[in-house]
Amino acid sequence: MARRIRARKQVIAQEARVNNVNRATLTIKQKALSSSSTSGDFVDHLKNLGLNATDAQSTAERITRKRVRSESRHPDVELAKRSGSLAARATTVIRDRSQMGVTTAHQLASANKKKAIALRDMYAQGKAGEADRKILTKKPRHLFTGKRSNGTNDRR
């Protein structure tokens, strides 16, 4: 019986070596790239389900379409346009981080007000002296230790 179990374990180990189960598994992106499905297959699948696939196909084509430089354009014009966009990008206004995500003056005022309310308690704590800050334990322990009361006979 034990000999059969050992033989079976050897067979399982050899199969695992053949299958190479310890190799790194592919990520989802790599699996998608390695598959041979196309957008046409996707459209056919949607049609089989009874769905209109024209919008999905046009969106996918628009997203994945690569920029193709037309041959009719003159290279100097192309270079001038590109250099203009580079200059515009270089001179873009760098906004303050406190104003990022804020579109209107009303939103900025509201955000500043909320910030002031949130910081008010912290500022008050900073102004208080070290002895004036909150004392977490209200009872001074040295006054209450050693006194016998209900169920506290064991620690003294």
Task: Describe the model.
With 156 residues, the chain is mainly α. It has a domain at 2-65. It contains 7 helices and no strands. Helix 3 (39-49) runs antiparallel to helix 4. The model is unreliable at 67-71 (pLDDT under 50).
Descriptive tags:
single chain, 156 residues, mainly alpha
Could you give the topology of this structure?
Layout: H1 2-19, H2 28-34, H3 39-49, H4 54-64, H5 75-90, H6 105-127, H7 141-144
Helix pairs in contact: 3-4
Tell me the overall shape: flat
Instruction: Report the end-to-end length measured between terminal Cα atoms.
Output: 66 Å
Total count of helical runs of at least 4 residues: 7
- Extract low-pLDDT stretches: 67-71
Order of helices and strands: HHHHHHH
Strand content: under 5%
Look at the structure and give the mean pLDDT: 73
The description of the largest β-sheet is:
none
| Rg for CA atoms | 36 Å
Helix content: 55-70%
- Please report the total strand number as a whole number: 0
Helix/strand/pairing category: mainly alpha
**Assembly category:** single chain
Tell me briefly what this model is.
This protein is an all-alpha fold and 156 residues long. 58% of the residues lie in helices and 0% in strands. It is built from seven helices and no strands.
